[in-house]
Description:
By secondary structure, this protein is mainly β. It contains 1 helix and 23 strands. Mean pLDDT is 86; it is low at 1-35.
Amino acid sequence: MKRFFDRVADFFGTGWLRGSALLLALGILALVSGGAKANCTITAGSAPAAVNFTPPSSTITVSYGAAVGTVLYQSGSVAPANPNSMTCSNNSIYGVSNNVGAQPGTTATIYPTGVAGIGYSIGHSTSTNLLLPYPCCTIANGSYTNSVASSLTLIKIGPIVSGSVIPAGTLAYWLYANGLKIEAFNLTTSITIIDPACSVNTTPINVTLPTVSVGAMASVGATAGTTPFAIALTCSSGATLDIELDYAGTASNITGVLTKTSGSSAGVGLRLLDQNYNPVVFGATTVVGSTPTGALSIPYYAQYYRSGTVTAGSINASATFTLSYQ
């Protein structure tokens, strides 16, 4: 008898499990087939409405040593060019769909641009009310007009390759569950990102030449008082550095010579020489070389240059320099 009841228990146990699995599957099928679709429908205007961001410059220069999280660009508020209206049912899902990089998780507020080290966020109504990634959110049943202004923020999210370009085009869409793109967030012009590899240690750089006698420069073209100086930088590796020197005052017709900006002397200018004692060609770019990690010094010389009949007195002159990177 014991064996008989064991078998009966086994039989009914197996049959009950099979029946339960069948009923469970039927229940799921009924729920799926009986559910209503959540969607939104455009009732006025067209979709997607364009939200166009136009930066004031096609170049953004990152501050030297800028930390991750640094804001590189912040647009003003931009309303959709042609706002649309829609009706939604059954709590439709929505969010931002990234069009230029990987889609982040639904709680993220920064989207990758596809360009190393650069991300973006989209503010809605304010720059701090940030739109979240699809499928983050649901919208209640009802009718809506999509006319709220948005803003674009570009953010440093990692190491940047200087010279990288964020191309013009659609960065993202405001997407709803049935594939409806309500708005397109567009960058109207490409942006080149310049990440400087060096910072200038001291500015301005003051160079003091010694006092010399008028007789030390006997004729036009003579020089005196040659004094070394350097442009001292702190750099990070990975770039090729160029430098350009330019007049800060009135141009001279003599290569490398700066006319005075103030002072009582006459017939004298200040000439700048490179490290090889060649007169500097103002307005021309010179390759310095690869940037090191740490200190970098670019050597120059300054000297008096006789350009005419000399009158004793003081002389001051100025030049500017521009660093660029490849």
